[in-house]
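Let's sit down with a protein and look at its sequence and fold side by side. Which protein we use is up to you, so please pick one and set it down. Label the sequence line and the structure token line clearly, so we can match residues to local backbone shapes. Go ahead whenever you are ready, and we will take it from there:

***
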Amino acid sequence: MRSYISGRQAMTSTDFVELALGTPIELWLGEDGESEMERAARLDAARDILADNPGMPDDAIRVAAEAIEQHAADLFNVVPLTPRPARARRVRKGAAA
């Protein structure tokens, strides 16, 4: 199945999140090895985006919920795993050489 957000196809889960949010995911989660200065700048940018778009978190949750609802049959197609029957152990009699 293909997922489209604003006319763009989301190929990976990262694409889906970035298209839904309209920003790179690293802006919200950070990157490995970022300095304190880079982190502060990233958080300032995130605060500015949220201030300009107060409905953004609700919109992102709505888009995610719609995607889950649309693909629920595939997402929740769970097959219960049954335990394998115990195999009889082979008993050997006698002394080992």
User: Anything to note?
Assistant: Residues 68 and 74 are 9 Å apart (CA to CA). The longest helix spans residues 36-52.
